[in-house]
């Protein structure tokens, strides 16, 4: 009862109901109006049969109804399941079944998935159309859910450790894992974030990175609790980002490095007034230093970096604006720009060897994390949970080195994972799909460096004797079954895969040609 | 294991051991040195027999050893008992016995109390001299405790809800009550405070308000966890305050309103350079608006107000710098300066009627508070705890009105308590002492307004037939037995006290002559 996610909305709704809360295309709402909408929605969801602990999935672009869904679920004690909008229907079906989702909210861009979803999702009662245009036949309108409902709602007295959201992430086994985040996780992270960002009531935050991802969603709580303004852009697009910042005098936003690159590269970049920005946040994948330097030079504010992971709700460490300034201006401090900063107050981080002992400065080891922000566990996956959280410490799988100034740099990844454009890709999941390709003997995929996406997926395949296939064919096969960002950008045909004596595929051998001997083996 | 008070020190000790942590007269220490000192002290305390849950009391002025004692106790899982330096020996003995204190640390100004303390404190093993001059005979030197001890110490794995401090406050029954604050209470408050103050590593905080009081001690955690610099002034003195701010480029400090008044009134005020100040904090008692206006005019930074209480660890609400600016500059917003602001994020506050229902805007009711910062309870006083915390809400006894803008104003106090110079005085405690005066028939004390102290104690006495006494005699009698701030400043002799039909003393009748019909019945 001490830390409830819904408290983040209760505060501004009570203290400044007249204050602007939302700018979303032609919609503007005060906190009073927004909270009333959340209450109507919570009442509507209740009428539709959603109760405490029930899952409600959201397959939407960014808009204020998404934000209302977050808080309405929290008020009900229901569990929100924000879906990655790039998933393909089989992946979505898996998640809806794993989470026993009862209701799904969907926007226009994803209607093509609907038939497969309805066929496969065993617990799904209804699908609501949450977009703002005409409601397609066969779908229930969002507006029906809230129509006639009361503006008042008494939030469920949820406990600090009650789960408020399943945030799906990939899995080394190939199955997505539902990260269970509690009231305490989300609220603690809001304070950790706040201690880095210092959101105030005059801040205007632009949701342009996708709201299903915690990199953006974390700011929901920190910004709302201080009564800041939420500005929405439906989906990332460089020109739209620039327009919205200028038009609404946006002060903060988060971008993944790939987005930063697109924004800077836009032909009209120099024509927009970005002076309202107080900071821009970046995270979710490593930032190439040349790109970071370019961003500092061209964007009229200092960046802030957040490093974290869904399991940590998500913030673990940050590199401050001041650190960026020093790293940019002082050649002796240039190394700062290649680091992931320092652990934020409230979160404990250690770099340990395989025996769990903290390593010395300058030595590489795995990052482990402890704090009130660490997830309760993975839904329905006790073994994966026990593997991830040992002795109270979350084992990140990221390999880092701490220097003598207390800053650490990510140098490698223990998990067989690729990060492309800010999205995590587990190689097993991709390999499992490729193996279904007719005539496939064996395959492995690795991440290779890419200027635009940081890393991209490269597949190595061995066909059965007398079988043949084209690169494009295999890629297309994957794109039918996997979110496109997970699919190989290139396929190499080999006669055999390099293997260890024990028969284990030597991915490192394949990576070598692309990564060379760089200290940093991740992008 | 998620929120431990010692984490606030572990972070800077690990991340920036070379960074300046302490400026205390001619002592300067980095975080590495300071933390090593804390570890030696923890080891020394352990050698002296202090273990998990044992109480260690501190009767000290402000210095870095006090700060080390806080963290050494936290590292050990021992309980620190910071003593109000103005208490008289009988009050101290009560607390040492109530808390079963094993070790006491004492500074020179309090040596006169020592004999009575040693005679009365039943669980006290040893007394250490923590001041910096020659160690008086019969006392153990602080330096002996740490000499030869290891710089390393593995903190006890305390739980979030383990008690880390007993912070004594007065009691309506006349007995001081030990407020039990846990790891989670102290760390949560650090984040609540941080969301208001935004301490950074470049901040320099001046401990000039007494460190036994949570108004100052709260900043210990918030400032340390971000690696700020602690500057110490032994005890409040207006000239010393001005000197230290100027000399060490102090950025933040907390003052109670009485201290603000003294500082502004100092003859040399205008000769000091105070431009390093980023904010000054005030709290602990209501701030007279004319004094606040004078402070805004003369001190070259905006104030921040914190409202709270020991039981809330302590922060509940704040009035921001921006609110002060608006209240000062805009006549239509001048009312802001008379309020206690708005509840901080993370803390729930309601104003309720005697039935526990939230009252409407504009109606007076009791402030009740809920959050991860609310104390575990009062030590050894389950009835008082049950009375204070009902249905999870702490009942403050402060009466307030919330306006239509969400700001609230303290208008009265339900508890029979007087606040003088930032110190809480429970009238029963004073009355109990006066009743011991020879020939006393009955007495009651009330708080009356005072320009310097906010409120002061005024006693009304009725002597037995044929008995007589002088005002000065009664005041001196009290000063032998009570901290001087609790003693009456004036005594009125009456032939009888005004009483209700049921025989209850009508304090309101006595107050009327001093408070009139003002809406605000507290200062």
Q: Can you offer a commentary on this structure?
A:
Two copies of one chain form a homodimer. Chain A has 523 residues and is an alpha/beta fold. Chain A is built from 16 helices and 27 strands. Chain A is 31% helix and 27% strand. In chain A, helix 2 packs across helix 3. Chain A starts with 6 loop residues before the first helix and ends in an 8-residue tail after the last helix. The model of chain A has no long low-confidence stretch (mean pLDDT 94). Chains A and B meet through helix 1, helix 7 and strand 16 of A and helix 1, helix 7 and strand 16 of B.
- CATH level-1 class of the largest domain in chain A: Alpha Beta
Distance between the termini of chain A: 41 Å
Query: Which strand order spans the largest sheet of chain A, edge to edge or round the barrel?
Result: 2-1-11-10-12-13-14-15-16
What is the tally of helical segments of chain A? Answer: 16
Mean pLDDT of chain A: 94
Biggest sheet architecture of chain A: 9 strands, mixed
